[in-house]
């Protein structure tokens, strides 16, 4: 029998140890996913914790159909989208500009600049493409698991990933031309 199914069954019966096992099993992946979305460690931790709180609050209604991790990604993705809505309402003056960061004034680090450009490119993707990229490449999910987490077909997940790669390539080529 599926070990995850048994773990969830124990959680539904109120077994405290099973809750701890579940959190230890998935917290790191969910935190990393949230971190890729919002870029702020504190917000990422808050969103990850809220993801688990919401999962546990609805546990009695949860019907196990595969991987709970995919469901957690869905909840986390919704919370991250809420974070984006709130973030747009906040002033952006205090955010570091391109080229600012860990290096001092006048110091150049081409590798960090390239990574910052890639992060900016990923952040500029439409939400449905960004989610697919984060799940597939940053969370290292298989395409079928990415599709399940997003609630879409495998072929649509492949399409979104190809479209995202093309947009990222175009953006990075424009950056290189500057």
From TrEMBL:
Belongs to the sigma-70 factor family. ECF subfamily. Residues 116-168 form the RNA polymerase sigma factor 70 region 4 type domain. Residues 22-88 form the RNA polymerase sigma-70 region domain. It comes from Candidatus Allocopromorpha excrementigallinarum. Keywords: DNA-binding, Sigma factor, Transcription, Transcription regulation. The keyword Repeat does not apply. The keyword DNA damage does not apply. CDD domains: Sigma70_r4 (cd06171). GO terms for biological process: DNA-templated transcription initiation. This is RNA polymerase sigma factor. One of its GO terms (molecular function) is DNA binding.
């Amino acid at each position: 029998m599926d070990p995850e199914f048994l773990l969830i069954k124990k959680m539904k019966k109120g077994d405290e140890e099973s809750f701890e096992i579940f959190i230890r099993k998935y917290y790191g992946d969910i935190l990393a996913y949230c971190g890729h979305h919002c870029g702020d460690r504190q917000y990422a931790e808050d969103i990850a914790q809220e993801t688990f709180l919401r999962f546990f609050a609805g546990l009695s209604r949860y019907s196990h159909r595969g991987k709970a991790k995919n469901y957690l990604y869905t909840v986390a993705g919704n919370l991250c989208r809420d974070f984006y809505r709130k973030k747009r309402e906040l002033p952006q003056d205090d955010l570091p500009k391109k080229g600012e960061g860990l290096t001092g004034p006048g110091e150049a680090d081409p590798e960090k600049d390239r990574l910052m450009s890639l992060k900016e490119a990923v952040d500029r993707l439409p939400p449905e493409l960004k989610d697919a990229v984060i799940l597939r490449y940053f969370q290292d999910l298989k395409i079928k698991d990415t599709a399940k987490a997003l609630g879409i077909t495998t072929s649509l997940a492949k399409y979104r990933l190809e479209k995202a790669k093309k947009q990222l390539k175009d953006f990075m080529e424009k950056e290189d031309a500057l």
